[in-house]
Amino acid sequence: MTPKAKKALGWTGAVLAIIAIAVAILIAVWDWNWFRGPLERAASARLHRQVTIAGDLNVNLWSWRPSATVDGISIANPAWAGRDKMGSIDRLTIRVRLVPLLWGKLDTRVLAVDRPNFRLLADAQGRKNWDFSDGKVQPPADFPPIQHFVIRDGRLSYLDAQRDVRFQGTINARESLGEKNRGFELLGRGTINGAPFRAEVTGGPLLNIERTQPYPFDVDLRAGDTYITARGAVPKPFDLGAFHMNATMRGPDMAALFPLIGVALPNTPPYSLRGRLERKGFLWKVDNLSGRVGDSDLSGDVSVTTGRARPFLKAALQSRSLDFDDLGAIFGAAPKVGPGETASPEQVAIARTMAAQQRIFSDAPLDVTRMRAMDADVTYRAISIRDTPIKLSAASVHVKLDNGLLRADPVRFDLPQGRIEGQVALNARGAVPATDLDLRLSNARLEWLVPMAFQGGPVVNGGLVGRARLSGTGDTLHKTFGGANGQVTVVAPGGEIRESIAELMGVNVIKGLGLLKKKDTTELRCAVASFKTANGVMTADSIVLDTGPVVVTGRGLIDLGTERMDFRLRGHDKTFRLVRVLLPVTMKGPLTAPKLGVEPGSAIAQGGGAVALGALLSPLAAVLPFIDPGLAKDANCGGLVAAAKAAGAPVRTVSKPLTAKR
């Protein structure tokens, strides 16, 4: 190297040394507060709300582990949430490793947050002041591992107007909180729907956290009489988009879980369930769910997908043994409250009130806002059913919920022989919910549905079919059925009935009482009961029972609003009897406890009236196709219509089946 080159290199080294010394001096004396403005603007743009730094900004770059402290941080609320601050931090301290940072990797050694104070708010429209997405769907937070994470004297308040949740809590995180393997805790109290609420979330020591070592945590929540406990872990700290925990929950009603989990569940009797909850991004799964709801077992798998306009619930559930009265709570009624039955104190009170009022339909309001808050696709199967008002052996249903429109299709109840099957739709998209129901009874047997016996044998046996198509509006079961419109029809197209019973329906006192000592049967040719329903009143203009000795016809009504009935049945003898008392039979009173009687002073003369009788039978030609077009031509029911026509009745026939308007 020439002397000239050596001289130039020396000058270059000297200049670089002077520059390095100057930079070092500049950094040492530099007022880092100059960067507060750019840092505030960058943070405000990122969070879509005003961020201010009122205190000092200090940086130490001369270390293999550079650090920085920021004092007096405050974050404003969005405009809709008012002028109060969303949160503040007295001091934020961060220390990172320099070498990984040069390669674009953030390796945080220390993150210390002093006296954070945050006020979280969700309004009645579902807007959240901690939502920084600016309307865009953001993936779950995935923070880099922090070797030493400290939170000192944190305060957290939470108000959710939609779920009626109020919460005040404290947050602390340090190397040790006085208990083994415990370094993080969130403790708080508040109310949910006015009931006391307590939360305790604890985690392991926040020291030497590694990405490959799961971080353990425990959860203990109590809201009124609802309890949730869980033990879980974050597999890759602190990727909050992936964690799992084994959880148990119990309480008086699963619908009360909505403020805690944000998923609308039906009303239920008291429950106790357990399962493994896992989160993977926007997917939350509960595997191996098992336990009891009321006096029924429940098991299956459940998942909820978030990150959509509405969460989507998908579930496949089953019960090995369903206690039928547990279903009552779903519709706002109450399960049975006798010895050995499971019911909450509130449900016991409802059951006693409804029993005292002799009521079936509940006045419990449907919360349509919850139905609009989520979508769902749920299947449920009951392998066996017990404690049923009629003999049901199994059940299944497939429910879909889409933006407030719920469809249960198909709904199926299996009988020992036959089934009840159809669809139910509940439209809660409008101001007043509207319900449509279309159920069919097929291939059933009278002896199973009318399980009365006399002298060791059934009173009646034979086939039974039927159909109910009703629609109504209202936010309670009572309002819906109290104003329903539609048609309900049941038909027994053949079988046998005890002749003594048939005679007594014609009130042939002498022969009827004499036959009660015998095991007699007579043909049941056809029986039809059809109700036209308007404004909640089911009016029966076509009640016909055709047996060997008599034809019984009747009229009456069932008022679903007052839940009372009033029927009058009359027997028409097929042959002349010397001793005959034809008195109308009445059935009146509340649906839960009607009373049978005989209408006094209304003896009916025998003979004649064939045309009048035929007139009562004439609507059958229009009624029977509502159930099954083949019934109008059935050997028994079709014969009944033909007999009425032969007697001079103005029988109308139809060329094709009638269908109800949707």
Characteristics of this structure?
single chain, 662 residues, alpha+beta, 31-stranded mixed beta sheet, two-stranded parallel ribbon, 13 helices, 17% helix, elongated, disordered C terminus
Topology:
Layout lengths: L2 H27 L6 H12 L3 E3 L3 E4 L6 E10 L8 E12 L1 H5 L5 E7 L2 E6 L23 E15 L4 E9 L10 E9 L2 E9 L11 E9 L2 E9 L7 E10 L6 H4 L9 E10 L2 E11 L2 E10 L6 E8 L2 E2 L21 H12 L11 H5 L2 E8 L2 E2 L7 E9 L2 E10 L4 E9 L6 E12 H4 L3 E2 L2 E2 L1 E14 L3 H6 L2 E8 L2 E3 L1 H7 L3 H7 L6 E13 L2 E11 L2 E10 L4 E10 L11 E6 L4 E4 L11 H8 L2 H8 L9 H10 L16
Parallel strand pairs: 5-7, 6-7, 17-19, 18-20
Antiparallel strand pairs: 1-3, 2-3, 3-4, 4-5, 4-6, 7-8, 8-9, 9-10, 10-11, 11-12, 12-13, 13-14, 14-15, 15-16, 16-17, 19-21, 21-22, 22-23, 23-24, 24-27, 25-26, 27-28, 27-29, 28-30, 29-30, 30-31, 31-32, 32-33, 33-34, 34-35
Helix pairs in contact: 9-10, 11-13
